[in-house]
Amino acid sequence: xxxxxxxxxxxxxxxxxxxxxxxxxxxxxxxxxxxxxxxxxxxxxxxxxxxxxxxxxxxxxxxxxxxxxxxxxxxxxxxxxxxxxxxxxxxxxxxxxxxxxxxxxxxxxxxxxxxxxxxxxxxxxxxxxxxxxxxxxxxxxxxxxxxxxxxxxxxxxxxxxxxxxxxxxxxxxxxxxxxxxxxxxxxxxxxxxxxxxxxxxxxxxxxxxxxxxxxxxxxxxxxxxxxxxxxxxxxxxxxxxxxxxxxxxxxxxxxxxxxxxxxxxxxxxxxxxxxxxxxxxxxxxxxxxxxxxxxxxxxxxxxx
Length: 304
Ligand code: PRP
Ligand code: ZN
Known about the structure:
Blueprint: E1 13-18, H1 24-32, E2 38-40, E3 46-49, E4 54-59, H2 64-69, E5 75-79, H3 80-91, E6 99-104, E7 110-117, E8 132-135, H4 138-148, E9 153-156, H5 164-167, E10 172-177, H6 181-185, E11 188-197, E12 199-204, H7 211-231, E13 233-240, H8 244-247, E14 258-262, E15 267-274, H9 280-288, E16 292-298
Parallel strand pairs: 1-4, 1-5, 8-9, 8-10
Antiparallel strand pairs: 2-3, 3-4, 5-12, 6-12, 7-10, 7-11, 13-15, 13-16, 14-15
């Protein structure tokens, strides 16, 4: 192969994202915030990159790891749960990993959990011995059961796992929990978390050695900037000078605040760019410590 001319079609980066479902919109919005724009094909399965040679392929989330492993797509945005399950499944017939998680993306948060009927008196995992557990995640469940030394029957279902106990197909389930509404609606309760998940950027296990390496570097740089901005907030408040030693350590991952004097020397107005989570709880702590007029503002852009 001539190393100077890349194989046809591989001088562009191709990212697989979910066509519809809970990761679809946020995934596109995140990529758009990295300055990517596309022209959509008529069938809406392919988006041709206009601002950069980075195209999108809209697919079923469960297909994304395989598309990356087969080299059909270069990157993908998919739940860690799907990636982890298919990674384990692939280990059976290949030696090393076929894809890897490159970045957690901070949306689509959920957990893979075991849930049992509300009526169960739950004490410990060993109660699952001898039961039937319905799931779409047989690899992750089997691995966990094995680690716990529990012999249970894994019942593979591709969907509607939560109704399996009512239908008598299983005694418990192992499924994704986000808000918990699905479990509650089916008189089930989560009792054990197997995996904390969120949307991640996934890529192949080996680095690219053509023009895609540069495109990926550019994308990751912009992505890191976009993710940092999303988490960042500008916090403004007032306080008297002597309280600063107590207040400043309470600012989550803050940059050096801008301090302005008001009402002479004792009263201060502060502006701090916080990169950590500014929760309600944290704001209440600041207020208790003497901060007044607390205001949190979103950050639209950052250029250090
Ligand atoms: C998951 C899971 C549950 C539901 C839980 O399915 O299988 O049905 O979400 O969410 P809740 O705790 O907020 O009620 P999802 O919609 O992600 O679709 P999929 O697993 O079929 O891809
Ligand atoms: Zn799915």
